[in-house]
Amino acid sequence: MKVTYYPGCTLKTKAKNLEDAAVASMAALGVDFQELSRWNCCGAVHSLADDDLIHHVAPVRDLVRAMEQGSDKVVTLCSMCYNSLARANLIMRDDPVKRKTINDFMDEEKDYSGEVEVVHFLNFLRDEVGFDTIRAKVKYPLNGLKAAIYYGCTLARPRNVAIEPPGGTQLMTDFLEAIGATPIHFADAFTCCGSYQILANPENAVNVAAGILDCAAKAGAEALVLSCPLCEFNLAKKQGEMIQSGKISNNLPIFYFTQLLAAALGLGKEACRFDLNEKCSAEILKAKNLAVEAVAGIA
Amino acid sequence: MSQHDCDCATVQQVATGDRAILPKGAKTIPIYVMGKRYEVPETLTIMKAMEYAGFKFLRGAGCRGGICGACPTVYRKEGDYKLHFGLACQTVVEPNMYLAQIPFYPANRASYDIEAIEPVAESVHALYPELFRCVACNNCTKACPMGVQVLDYISAIKQGDIARAAHLSFDCIQCGLCASRCMGELPQYHIAQLVRRIYGKYIQPKAEHLRKRVQEIESGKYDAMLENLQKMDKAQLEKLYKEREREPDMAPLGTWMPKDTQYL
Predict the structure, then answer these.
(1) Which of A248, A285, B48, B219 fits B44 for a cystine, CB–CB 3.0-4.6 Å?
(2) B137/chain A closest Cα distance in angstroms
């Protein structure tokens, strides 16, 4: 199976653990997972202003690149990239006026009208790889790891690009069960992490993020699983600050779902990259005697 | 040369270098320089056509060989909405082209100490945070007279791939047309230069033979040879030059050796 995938800038810099684990897992599952040879920023935030088409040019250009390279499907890992690519794709497929304006502006590229399908990695795992296949290839099931399922905004909203029917977390539930973990459902699974408010209003963003972590911990979670580097930043990197100010009482380990996949498939530390997570992530795995090889030597 | 030294009406035009060489019977075509019409001989470059028309370049001309980046020119053609870009010293005039040179375009260059910089993309991001204002409009690439994939190297920098950005931007001549067209107000060519400096200093494999040669020079291996040359008078130097050994033009690689091999 040949799959074209769009990584996104953050996966190449601050979220290598999200990408490395996915690429290694695909190799282990025998999927030919090929990065687009040319790509640019996904646009990061989908512009909602009706006449602001210039901010759709970046994602559309990526979709043109995918089309040029002969792929009818492009898989993404980062929730934010998924959201902006998928939404721009819908505009190009469904809105003839905007499509014409954007195609006219990008007159150095081939005309595009939504030929490529944008697929999130979770959907890809379910539909193309199959959770049963994954279950069969799991070497070290993550037995007893109580992992809270966190979708945030961009996997679930708006409805027309949601990775599953709104309000549902079946996809991640099935995924976690396939790798042996125990899914924990909690009330804030779709609450915004604070997003880019971490720059303009850091205190508010940290408050929101602390509320999410607290809610997950109270639901019995020992860890939280997500697919977005911005959520990871707000929920994981700010925990020291939250504990200091008494907003949360204990660290809650945060994982990218791809890292847990790689760990369950028995891949080593170069694949899982737990060294790039906050310390408590490797610690909980060690404490539970899980992913032994992948966490060995991580202080 | 003053006016009195040359009676241009009677001197046959055999100009070389900066002056126009007109083919016999050359036709003239109209071009518009900053809105004013000039009849210039076809086949000239924009630069020579402008000089033919009476312009004198104090700025906006450098190497005249397509590499210094001093003469970027923007033009349009009749009946074509597209903007076109080229170097005045390399681009041949076309009938009814409307052109203006943009010899300089303001673009801020960050200040940094290349010796102290950490060779990672984050250093570049911190010095040029405006990188993230790029909307991938691709105007930079369309404006580049060197055919550099500017958007692709800007994307590579955002993706943290310094080596790829250095390679993609290698042909940049720092003319500034990319910056002149940028919606995000990026100074692309300065960012690319920083990236190539980081690549050259910290990432690119070092040339082992160069290190050895520098070591030899520093150890004084060639000092006597230089001192000897410095003592020679002009006649001796000329003699030495005329009698110098030369590798035959068509000698197969690695077959020729000079008589004196002590400095090899």
Answers:
(1) B48
(2) 6
User: B141 to chain A: which residues are within 8 Å by CB?
Assistant: 108
Rounded mean pLDDT, B173-198: 98
What is the H or E stretch that residue A184 is in?
A: strand A182-184
Q: How far is A8 from chain B (nearest CA, A)?
A: 7
pLDDT value, residue B1: 39
Complex-level ipTM: 0.92
Amino acid B263: pLDDT:
80
C-alpha neighbours within 13 Å on the C-beta side of residue B29: 15
Q: Give a yes or no: residue B241 inside a domain.
A: no
Average pLDDT on B7-19 reads 45
Report the residue from A12, A43, A105 with minimal CB separation from B160.
A12
- CATH code reported for the domain at A140-295: 3.40.50.11810
Q: Is the overall model pTM greater than 0.90, yes or no?
A: no
Nearest-by-Cβ selection for A54 from B122, B137, B154: B137
Query: For position A45, what pLDDT does the model report?
Result: 92
The residues of chain A that CATH labels 1.20.1050.140 are 2-121
CA angle A200, A241, B158 (to 5 degrees): 50
Tell me the three state secondary structure of residue A271: helix
3-class DSSP assignment, residue A245? coil
Question: Which domain, by its residues, includes B131?
Answer: 121-203
